[in-house]
Write a structure and sequence with these properties.
There is one protein chain. Helix content is 35%, strand content 34%. With 138 residues, it is α+β, with helices and mostly antiparallel strands. β4 and β5 form a beta hairpin. α1 runs antiparallel to α2 and α2 runs antiparallel to α4. It is globular.
């Protein structure tokens, strides 16, 4: 069972200039738990991709950064919440090469490969919530 420590913060992402400060905060969480540079890079890359999706497809939204633990393992959980149009076909969106924009279509499936835990909940007309966890030793 994953437990949340008291280390948690929220950020509202409404413009491109909000991305770098968010990436820096996520990195600070990784550093604080002693996460390796490689795992920090994976977490920051996943965060970058998801926050850009939040802006592009969801019109901005809220991001929650938390320190979490599971037994002896510590990690960082990042949750992205938007009130955009939602994703019509999550299964299709999770396939490599699929894109509704002009991208390579590696966003969601690529992000899932970078982290240890990946969860997506979406409802048409009501938005999407994506939660990722990168474990210190994962």
């Amino acid at each position: 069972m994953t437990t949340i420590t008291n280390n948690k913060e929220e950020a509202f992402i409404v413009k491109e200039q909000d991305v770098v400060p968010l990436r820096n905060r996520v990195k600070e969480y990784g550093v604080k738990i002693g996460m390796s540079i490689l795992n920090q890079t994976k977490l920051i890359t996943a965060t970058s991709e998801l926050v850009r999706n939040l802006l592009k497809y969801g019109g901005g939204g809220k991001v929650i950064i938390e320190s979490v633990s599971n037994g002896r393992d510590n990690g960082v959980r990042v949750t992205f919440i938007d009130k955009g149009p939602g994703i019509a076909d999550v299964g299709l969106a999770m396939k490599d090469g699929y894109s509704t924009g002009k991208s390579l279509g590696l966003g969601l499936p690529g992000t899932k490969r970078l982290v240890n835990e990946f969860d997506i909940k979406t409802e048409l007309g009501n938005g999407t919530t994506v939660t990722i966890i990168k474990w210190k030793n994962g």
